[in-house]
Amino acid sequence: MNPVNIVCLGSSAGGLPAIMEFFTAMAPDSGLAFVVIQHLQADKPSLTPRILSRLTRMPVTEAVDQEALCANHVYTIEPNTQLTVVDGRFHVALRNESSAHHKPFDRFLQSLAINSGVRATAVVLSGYDGDGSLGFLAIKAHGGATFAQDRTAQVSEMPQHAMATGCVDHVLNPAQIAAQISLQH
Questions:
Q1: Residues 120, 24: Cα–Cα separation, whole Å
Q2: Which CATH class is domain 6-184?
């Protein structure tokens, strides 16, 4: 199996509309695998797969342990889990941090940077806290591409923290991010 280029989108508060805008603009046959990392309540099921399935022809499923990432698929994180990628396969584990220390976007991006190098793309969308900043440093250190949502973010903290690292290649709205990623691949 050939390695697939992976685009990871991270968000928390206000992120779902941005994610929806991104996938409405993204072609279903881009040849990319998409991973959506959201800050979710640990004890409630996520509606994201069902919502995104209405917006794209790509299959949208929650990531499964040891599942190989496939092109033209969208994977979401399951509540109360932490997600990483090793050798093109997901590793899903129960979340072991308190809410204050839970950084699922950073955790996934750091593994993605090591696993995929230049085939990795990180996209930070609306949300609170600095989740993603450490991951952006890792993605850039391994030659990947990075995008941050512009002023259209309902909550600007996650994009602002990422931009403060100096590791953001493009600052655009979600539809423009989708278009730019399509052009690059």
A1: 21
A2: alpha beta
- Give the Cα separation of 112 and 158 in Å (integer): 19
Answering whether pTM is above 0.85, one says yes
The tens digit of pLDDT for each residue in 2-58 reads 679 999 999 999 999 999 999 999 999 999 999 999 988 878 889 999 999 999 999
Bridge partners (DSSP) listed for residue 122 = 8, 146
Cα–Cα distance, 156 to 79 (Å, whole number): 23
Q: Tell me how many helices (H) and strands (E) the chain has.
A: 6, 9
Cα dihedral 104→105→110→113 (10° resolution): 140
Per-position DSSP letters for 104-121, written without gaps between them: HHHHHHHHHHHHHGGGEE
